[in-house]
Design brief:
- This protein is α+β, with helices and mostly antiparallel strands and about 200 residues long.
- It contains five helices and eleven strands; from the N terminus they run H-H-H-H-H-E-E-E-E-E-E-E-E-E-E-E.
- A six-stranded antiparallel beta sheet has the order 1-2-3-10-5-8, with no helix packed on it. A five-stranded antiparallel beta sheet has the order 7-6-9-4-11, with no helix packed on it.
- Helix 2 crosses helix 3.
Length: about 200
């Protein structure tokens, strides 16, 4: 068993659930120092301790012990396509890898369509956006960025953010995201001529 990989897996699962070290220690009935040492790969936990940690994370023990695949192939026909009201389309391009919170998404916004506002992710979340064609109106916290074809932007995703196409032409863009917890999507809405920037 690779202690470093085991520790990273536990830390990633804890991060996905938005749990602190103290949260996991309390839920698993294991000391904070033990959880911390296991996550850093400094201690080899007993089967009993590992089973408690797995239970505290809400996963089977086998998921912690599984070293996982070295490669994961996702064919074009297997990509998840999500069509939202208003014509917004998202295609998840990246394979799903257990314990890895990374997504690579191609999004398409028709003219005058807003994908909505999203709440902040947990600290340590990141997003990279690249516009393939059209114009993207991107809000991050209190800042607003208008991106054109070929433009890219990085932002720390622990801030409220939003995506919209306020022009009369379609917009296609990519998002590469490392997310530390799931979020709930806001409803899609169309921009009206009365709204600022429309």
């Amino acid at each position: 068993m690779d202690l470093g990989e085991l520790g990273k897996r536990i830390q990633a699962l804890r991060g996905e659930r938005g749990m602190t070290l103290q949260d996991l220690a309390s839920t698993a009935s294991v000391s904070v120092s033990m959880v911390s040492s296991v996550e850093r790969g400094q201690k080899a936990p007993t089967v009993v301790v590992l089973a408690r940690i797995a239970e505290g994370l809400g996963v089977p023990l086998t998921e912690l012990l599984d070293q996982g695949p070295r490669t994961v192939l996702r064919r074009a026909a297997e990509q998840d396509v999500v069509d939202e009201p208003g014509g917004w389309r998202r295609v998840v391009l990246s394979p799903v890898v257990p314990g890895v919170n990374f997504e690579w998404i191609r999004s398409s916004l028709p003219p005058h369509c807003a994908a909505g506002e999203y709440p902040a992710y947990a600290p340590g979340s990141h997003e990279f956006v690249v516009v393939e064609s059209g114009s993207l109106h991107l809000g991050v916290g209190t800042e607003v960025y208008d991106l054109e074809a070929g433009d890219s932007l990085y932002f720390s995703a622990d801030a409220v953010h939003s995506y919209a196409n306020i022009t009369g032409q379609p917009c296609h863009y990519y998002i590469a995201a490392l997310i530390m917890r799931p979020r709930h999507a806001a409803p899609v809405r169309r921009w009206s001529a009365a709204e600022p920037g429309a």
